[in-house]
């Protein structure tokens, strides 16, 4: 049995208004560059998914590689900023009209994104006709990955405690629920504490985190193994900020 035809929905807010909680450590130009790296890293990976189409919801200009354009769609968010829920809802008519069996919402700021785990989530959805698969945030209050099958089985609720909200809505609808507790997918980047956690727990788990400040990050194999430009960029701009790493 083939994997379900799945719409990959990627909401992207204004880069200028993103990652403001990193404002103490990254200036606005650096935060914009970080967002570009996040998006490009994600495009490179999700474009390899089979039976999928990528739907970007954004007012930003997204440069799509030639091989990705034919499996992508960009929907402009417009003037009204309706948050993540409103952005995701803009894909509703397209997803329903084109008879996608499921949809998967992925934020841009999960630097340890693993494509094999996303394939596992999509394949698991073949086990039910009506349900959700969900990856929580580190603190189990947010939602980092959400698969809905069918697309409108529940409305999204990316407000406070979205993990709890999505579970509650699915239970109210009598939908199947599968929680994927992938630790790497639970790591997103909103605060400097998130960044430190990612580097301390995932990148430098077997060596002193201080090495990031003392070595050439480009040659550091701990970072290279993730093949992630956003992580490389964060390491480069935060390298000299010793108060973070010690």
Q: Quick check: average pLDDT?
A: 89
Rough outline = globular
Uncertain segments: none
Q: Main sheet: which strands, in order across?
A: 3-2-1-4-6-5-7
β-strand percent reads 15-25%
Helix content: 25-40%
- The number of distinct β-strands equals 7
Largest sheet: 7 strands, mixed
Overall radius of gyration: 18 Å
Structural class: alpha/beta
Order of helices and strands: EHEHEHHEHEEHEHHHHH
Distance between the termini: 51 Å
Number of helices: 11
List keywords for this structure.
246 residues, alpha/beta, 7-stranded mixed β-sheet, 11 helices, 16% strand, globular
Task: Please describe what this structure looks like.
With 246 residues, the chain is α/β, with parallel strands linked by helices. The chain has eleven helices and seven strands. Strand 2, helix 2 and strand 3 form a beta-alpha-beta unit. It is globular, with a radius of gyration of 18 Å. 37% of the residues are buried. The model has no long low-confidence stretch (mean pLDDT 89).
Helix and strand layout, with pairings?
Layout: E1 6-12, H1 28-46, E2 52-58, H2 66-69, E3 72-75, H3 83-89, H4 92-97, E4 102-105, H5 115-124, E5 131-136, E6 143-149, H6 162-172, E7 176-179, H7 192-203, H8 211-214, H9 221-224, H10 229-238, H11 242-245
